[in-house]
Amino acid sequence: MAFNSGVRSSLESLLGAAAVSERPVADLWPLGIMRRRAGHEPPLVQVVRPDSAQLVCRLLEWAHGAGVQVIPMGGASGVCGALAPTAGQVVLDLGALDHFEIDEPNLACRAGAGLNGLRLEQALQERGLTLGHYPSSLPVATVGGLLATRSSGQESSRYGNVEDMVMGLEVALPDGSLLAARAAPRSAAGPALHQLWLGAEGRIGVILEAVLRVHRKPETVIGRGFRLASVESGLDGLRAVVQAGIRPLVMRLYDPTDSAFQGLEGEGCLGLIAVAGPGPVAEAEAALVEKLVAGEPLGEAPWERWQRHRFDLSAERLKDLLEPAGSYVDTIEVATSWTQMPALYEDVRSALAHAADLVLCHFSHAYGQGCCAYFTFGGSAPSEDAAQAAYQQAWAGAMTATLRHGGTISHHHGVGQVRQPWLAQEMDGWLQAWDRIQAALA
To which H or E segment does residue 253 belong? Predict the structure, then answer.
């Protein structure tokens, strides 16, 4: 539906004139940036910024009755094109819901959906605590966005992914009904329904607040680098560490090309592993890691370098790399089992190399059953149309190869528009269940 003065008037009556504006809205999806670079601007939409859960519920109740679709927005830092409103839709900017409360004795906190992730982490650090969630988007992402995309951070091997940190959620349903958070340490009084909103990308309601588990900062962190002979031997080392029951703070393996970008001189692959905990525990784990990895020790310098640059390849940085006409660059994170990973890596890398000038890969987010492969690809083309075609060819090749090896098409960036064509193939019969859930809550 097209907006008219009556709709604008209704929004201002509900929320106040200062909370309503009209502007184009988009996330940091590289293809979207490329399209805007070519002159295709997103439409103007109504953006509202309520400052309380009650006002959000009032907005949704009105929109439900008026037949207006509401699109939730956090930090607009997504990279998959999930935030792409069309004319007639209302964008719900949750940035004013940025409150937080830290419950140190119970190692928990309450955080509004619009709270910046780095701001929350800094507040926790000041009290000797950490959420343990460090995605590269942390400086620009919000709590609600991290939850809605089922995010994972650089320290997931120790602290888990975002779904492991959530005790409860306060949620507004599409009709404006409010669901308060159930925040016991654990409950068997029915299923943990709040998990439905983690990864739902706003499709079944709006996350307003989260109750999150936090941790005390470790007393000691020991990080070291290793030279591994090959990707396959490096993966064997990572698998040995995690299957031994060690929970590293950080564990990453770079392929030969990416290792050179990380400063490794000579042949081989760079491995980075950091352990954490009380001093004697960290020291014992560091010694065991060195034995299990069975690579050439490189000391602390690679770890220290990585810490200095851990947020360099953020979505904001990719945006800068897309400024030249005809350029294309993106990241693709997929996951599969340990036994399938070497073949998946080679297959995806080959597919990307057919469409891009440069292909890098590192492996992280390790589990007893497998890990994530995080590819970066880029190149330049003689025209904007050719750049977009190469970009889409790269994605199609990577997704097809991933599914061929039994992998998941998204480890932690979500679905959005870019992965939508392959979602049904991965979800199979579960997509029908998901469609029914969305219909029931609409």
Answer: strand 250-254
DSSP state string for 29-71: -HHHHHHHHTT-PPPEEEEE--SSHHHHHHHHHHHHHHT--EE
pTM > 0.90: yes or no: yes
Question: What is the pairing mode between strands 269-277 and 220-228?
Answer: antiparallel
Task: Give the integer Cα–Cα distance in Å for 386 and 391.
Answer: 9
> Could you tell me the residue range of the domain that residue 293 belongs to?
220-309
251 plus 286 within the same structural domain = yes
Maximum Cα interatomic distance, the chain, rounded to a whole number of Å: 70
Tell me the CA distances in angstroms from 287 to 181, 186, 218, 220, one per residue in order: 43, 35, 18, 14
Residue 44 within a domain: yes
Please choose, from the candidates 335, 331, 350, the residue with its C-alpha nearest in 3D space to the C-alpha of residue 409.
335
Domain shared by 240 and 255, yes or no: yes
What is the rounded radius of gyration, in angstroms, for the C-alpha atoms of the chain?
Answer: 22
Same domain, 136 and 80: no
d(CA 11, CA 4): 11
Q: Domains in the chain: how many in total? A: 4
The sign of the torsion formed by the CA atoms of 130, 134, 138, 144 equals: negative
Burial letters 249-287, b for 16+ CB under 10 A, else e: bbbbbbbbebbeebebeeebbbbbbbbbbeeeebeebbe
Asked if 256 and 337 touch (Cβ cutoff 8 Å), the reply is no
pLDDT tens digit at each of 442 positions of the chain: 445 667 889 999 999 999 999 999 999 999 999 999 999 999 999 999 999 999 999 999 999 999 999 999 999 999 999 999 999 899 999 999 999 999 999 999 999 999 999 999 999 999 999 999 999 999 999 999 999 999 999 999 999 999 999 999 999 999 999 999 999 999 999 999 999 999 999 999 999 999 999 999 999 999 999 999 999 999 999 999 999 999 999 999 999 999 999 999 999 999 999 999 999 999 999 999 999 999 999 999 999 999 998 887 666 677 788 999 999 999 999 999 999 999 999 999 999 999 999 999 999 999 999 999 999 999 999 999 999 999 999 999 999 999 999 999 999 999 999 999 999 999 999 999 999 999 999 8
Structural domain ending residue among the three candidates 93, 109, 134: 93
Tell me the β-bridge partners of 358. 378
Q: Which of 93, 128, 161 is the last residue of a domain?
A: 93
